[in-house]
Write a structure and sequence with these properties.
It is built from 7 helices and 2 strands; from the N terminus they run H-H-H-H-H-H-E-E-H. By secondary structure, it is mainly alpha-helical. Strands 1-2 form a two-stranded antiparallel ribbon. The structure holds zinc ion.
C-alpha cells in the first residue's frame, strides 16, 4: 500500500525533481548499507567468505548506474519530506490510509496495541493480577480476506505504474516515470 500511495503521489505531482529524489534517496540508503557492511567486515579478524561476497555484491549494485562518489546519502526519514499520510490524502487514499495502512503500520512497528493483540495474552493465574505473557498459540485473527486485499493493491500498483509509464512516453508529462 505504501508503494501504491507513493507511486500515485509521484504521478500526481509529476515533478521530475521528485522522481530523481525518490531514486537518489533509495540509492543513497543502499550506499549507506554497503558502507556499514564494509565497516563491519573490516572490524572482523577473520570475516566469513559469505560476508565478503555480500560486500562485493552490494558494491556492484551501488555502482551500477551512478558511481558512488557522486551519490549523496540522506538520513531524512522520507525522500520527499511529505509523510505517507499527507501523500495518501493528496491522492484521495485517506480512507485506505486510515483503515488499512495505519493498522498495518502499527503491526510492522510493534506498537503496544499490536503486541497485545497478536503476541500477548492474559495470564490465567488468579494471583498474578492479570499480567500479560507471550501467546502460546499461533492462531491469529488474520483471514483469507487479507490475501485478496494484497492482490488488489498489487494489481492497482502494476496498473497505475504501467499507465504512468505510458503517459510519460506519450509526452503528456515532461517526465519519464522510472
Ligand atoms: Zn502469571
Amino acid at each position: 500500500m505504501e508503494s501504491l500511495i507513493v507511486l500515485r503521489w509521484l504521478l500526481k505531482r509529476d515533478d521530475p525533481t521528485m522522481y530523481s529524489r525518490f531514486k537518489d534517496y533509495g540509492r543513497g540508503r543502499l550506499k549507506l548499507l554497503k558502507l556499514h557492511v564494509e565497516e563491519y567486515v573490516d572490524s572482523l579478524d577473520d570475516p566469513p567468505p559469505g560476508l565478503q561476497e555480500y560486500v562485493a555484491y552490494l558494491d556492484a549494485e551501488v555502482n551500477r548506474e551512478v558511481g558512488e562518489e557522486w551519490q549523496n546519502v540522506s538520513i531524512e526519514t522520507t525522500f520527499s519530506a511529505v509523510s505517507a499520510r499527507d501523500m495518501a490524502i493528496e491522492v484521495g487514499m485517506e480512507r485506505e490510509y486510515r483503515l488499512q495502512f495505519a493498522p498495518a503500520s502499527s503491526a510492522t512497528h510493534g506498537e503496544w496495541s499490536s503486541l497485545d493483540r497478536y503476541v500477548l495474552e492474559r495470564c490465567q493465574n488468579p494471583l498474578h493480577g492479570g499480567h500479560r505473557i507471550p501467546l502460546r498459540t499461533l492462531s491469529t485473527p488474520i483471514g483469507a480476506q487479507l490475501v485478496d486485499t494484497i492482490l488488489d493493491l498489487t494489481e492497482d500498483l502494476v496498473f497505475d505504474y504501467i499507465a504512468g509509464v505510458r503517459k510519460g512516453m506519450s509526452g503528456e508529462g515532461d517526465t519519464q516515470a522510472a
